[in-house]
Write a structure and sequence with these properties.
CATH architecture: Alpha-Beta Complex
Shape: globular
CATH class: Alpha Beta
CATH superfamily: 4'-phosphopantetheinyl transferase domain
Structural class: alpha+beta
Order of helices and strands: EHEHEEEEEHHHEEEEE
Number of helices: 5
Helix content: 25-40%
Largest sheet: 5 strands, mixed
Strand order of the largest sheet: 1-12-2-6-5
Strand content: 25-35%
Length: 214
């Protein structure tokens, strides 16, 4: 995984091919809504930002409208102060980011929403490791389900992942070939946890920082 800080977005975008996935980190400002997302996609499409229009699918995933929806695939996720945008060609990525914080009811959530074997694996961890493992598992599940286009409405319990904080893996997924999935934890700093996933062959991930000039 290559990690760098780049502001020549056009140069980076021009280098996106079928062997790579670009994941951009940026500061999230709720007031700007999807403006940064559309601006970034416009660079990849080489069109003005106001020419980019998105439509929400049945399950709430934003997608490009014709004629660009077949040329470029993307997904984005945001938390209170940070966002990620994953961009790819030829595969549909899913990405999720969460702020690392203590969740008093983490195990209750796991018992309610996770596969029983995942919950058992979390319960076996030391409390200090459990918080990050829980969030890594949560973001990994979200990333996979977002990549399917169905989101968590599909059911977090209908897929089982390896409970390894820095090396997630799809072990089983209802109605899917688990071995067809790529899933990676993203090193986004000490304050956040994130994952990216896609169905297809392995690719190189380029994790980049989108510098805010505003």
């Amino acid at each position: 995984m290559h990690i760098t800080q780049r502001q020549d977005v056009a140069g980076v975008a021009a280098g996106l091919d079928d062997d790579h996935i670009h994941v951009w980190r940026l500061r999230y400002d709720r007031a700007r809504k999807r403006e940064p997302l559309c601006a970034l996609l416009a660079v990849y499409l080489d069109v003005p930002a106001d020419a980019v229009h998105l439509v929400d699918t049945e399950h709430g995933r934003p997608e490009l409208i014709e004629p660009w929806n077949g040329q470029l695939a993307f997904n984005w996720s945001h938390t209170k102060d940070a966002a990620l945008i994953a961009v790819a060609r030829g595969v549909t990525p899913g990405v999720d980011i969460e702020r690392l914080r203590t969740r008093a009811h983490a195990m209750e959530l796991a018992e309610r929403f996770f596969h029983p074997e995942e919950t058992a694996a979390l319960a076996a961890l030391d409390v200090e490791r459990r918080e990050q493992a829980f969030l890594q598992l949560w973001t990994a599940k979200e990333a996979v389900l977002k990549a399917t286009g169905r989101g968590i409405a599909f059911g977090l319990h209908r897929l089982r992942l390896a409970v390894v904080p820095d090396e997630p893996r799809v072990i089983w997924m209802d109605g899917e070939n688990a071995s067809a999935w790529q899933l990676h934890a993203l090193p986004v700093g000490a304050d956040h946890v994130a994952s990216v996933a896609w169905r297809g062959a392995a690719r190189s991930i380029e994790l980049l920082t989108l510098v805010d000039d505003g």
